[in-house]
């Protein structure tokens, strides 16, 4: 089970201590109970700089029949998950990528898979509506409305780029995050509800996106199963050279913590300047 983060030796230079919470989604646990439990787990990560939760952990990424009933407002003054996560981020004094929720759109009947990012003051500093919806004309692809804009979030130490699960298969989104103005993403956060039967793809794509963009990638999956779909887990922190700094062995509920030496981004880009050779 998750608990307080283990102490790590600080590295010289600018660092971000990231903790990925690989949350168990138990169908017998109510959404309210899980929300309270996850808020407590976030508070236990006091001492981290950035905490990350998985995709659609309140309801389950494959619990399609519950999307409409569990949809909520992304406004922190209204949505129950946003309220709980705002308070947890503030209490822990951490930046929190709170995974994603099913968000009610302003358009009649519209639902979005929306990520929420909170500052240590509990302020909602960024939202991202998932652009690539999974399902091939079924499930999420038919129930959710697609987002349209890549999103980066200013962070005091490193601009964050936001992507969600199936987005990982579309490298052009990650290029857009790296190219964003006024500063491209240097740490890309990818919450997911990735199925176990494609676990190797999850690990492969996460490393590939880190290598080709020379960024840190924080890939946070879920434990357990979503509506009977076994989850891959395998949350991982990957550096700009593609090395896995820390990872979950499997799909049990756990915490993955690593220090990101931010100076490594520029070192990798200067020693192996592949981004400078881009033509398209």
From TrEMBL:
Coiled-coil stretches: none
| Tagged with keyword Hydrolase | yes
Tell me if Coiled coil is a UniProt keyword of this record.
no
Name the domain of life.
Answer: Bacteria
Q: What are the UniProt keywords, alphabetically?
A: Hydrolase
The record's section on Pfam families has: CN_hydrolase (PF00795)
One Gene Ontology molecular-function label: hydrolase activity
Residue ranges of domain CN hydrolase in the record:
16-262
Output the InterPro entries linked to this UniProt entry. Answer: C-N_Hydrolase (IPR003010), C-N_Hydrolase_sf (IPR036526)
Describe the family membership recorded for this protein in Swiss-Prot or TrEMBL. Answer: Belongs to the carbon-nitrogen hydrolase superfamily. NIT1/NIT2 family.
Q: What is this protein called?
A: Carbon-nitrogen family hydrolase
Q: Which organism is it from?
A: Streptomyces axinellae
